[in-house]
């Protein structure tokens, strides 16, 4: 899958179509391929590229430390790397005969095995744990067609929570000259309660009549 130039609409469209059926660029977790593709975009994808926008905000929500910890993953689809031939990996077990009949050799082999198991366990314990997150689209409805929607959006975006990142938004007509504010956000599941977030938005009673959850996806 090649996206082409991600600074053009054609490239972003190709990325959006790819992400329609894939959560990440390579595999089932964020990798350096996601980070490289993210950096290749000239700007935040337009809301019409909903799959690319969802993925973009998800990758953006990670801290610099978390991004550095992303595994290598597959090659980024934006470019094709020249094939390289790596020397065959040396099997450390070839250096040790675990089935030697000599008792001294058996003891040495067991010691090496235990050291390797300990090193593997230490490495695994230091591996960063990916934080469970969700992509949420909220429909914020005004009282009538005289409600200042720009002011409504400003008030909504003043809400700050640890683990909450606001994304793109747009006004959607609902009839009789009334528009609703449709706004996207990414939340860390363990830190942010979506129900609490809805309650906080509804506190802006001068602007907000009601809030509905239009979409909720684990990422």
UniProtKB/TrEMBL annotation:
GO cellular component, one term: eukaryotic translation elongation factor 1 complex
InterPro entries according to UniProt: eEF-1beta-like_sf, EF-1_beta_acid_region_euk, EF1B_bsu/dsu, EF1B_bsu/dsu_GNE, Glutathione-S-Trfase_C_sf, Transl_elong_EF1B/ribsomal_bS6, Transl_elong_EF1B_B/D_CS
Domain Translation elongation factor EF1B beta/delta subunit guanine nucleotide exchange: 133-219
GO molecular function: guanyl-nucleotide exchange factor activity; translation elongation factor activity
PROSITE patterns per the UniProt record, alphabetical: EF1BD_2
CDD domains in the record: EF1B
Keyword Nucleotidyltransferase included in the entry's annotation: no
SUPFAM superfamilies: eEF-1beta-like, GST C-terminal domain-like
Pfam family, one: EF-1_beta_acid
SMART domains found in the cross-reference section: EF-1_beta_acid (SM01182), EF1_GNE (SM00888)
Domain Elongation factor 1 beta central acidic region eukaryote: 98-124
Family per similarity comment: Belongs to the EF-1-beta/EF-1-delta family.
PANTHER family the UniProt entry points to: EF-HAND AND COILED-COIL DOMAIN-CONTAINING FAMILY MEMBER, ELONGATION FACTOR 1-BETA
Name the UniProt record assigns to this protein: Elongation factor 1-beta
């Amino acid at each position: 899958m090649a996206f082409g130039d991600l600074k053009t609409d054609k490239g972003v469209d190709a990325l959006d179509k790819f992400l329609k059926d894939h959560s990440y660029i390579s595999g089932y977790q964020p990798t350096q391929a996601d980070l490289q593709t993210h950096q290749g975009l000239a700007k935040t994808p337009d809301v019409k590229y909903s799959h690319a926008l969802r993925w973009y905000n998800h990758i953006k929500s990670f801290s610099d430390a978390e991004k550095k910890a992303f595994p290598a993953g597959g090659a980024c689809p934006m470019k094709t790397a020249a094939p390289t031939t790596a020397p065959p990996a040396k099997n450390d077990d070839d250096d040790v005969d675990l089935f030697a009949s000599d008792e001294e050799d058996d003891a040495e082999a067991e010691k090496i095995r235990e050291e390797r198991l300990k090193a593997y366990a230490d490495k695994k314990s230091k591996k960063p744990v990916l934080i469970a997150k969700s992509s949420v689209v909220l429909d914020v409805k005004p009282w009538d067609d005289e409600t200042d929607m720009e002011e409504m959006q400003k008030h909504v975006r003043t809400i700050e929570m640890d683990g909450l990142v606001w994304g793109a938004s747009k006004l959607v007509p609902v009839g009789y000259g009334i528009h609703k504010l449709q706004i996207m956000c990414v939340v860390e599941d363990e830190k942010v309660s979506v129900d609490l977030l809805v309650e906080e938005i509804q506190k802006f009673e001068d602007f907000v009549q009601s809030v509905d959850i239009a979409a909720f996806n684990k990422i």
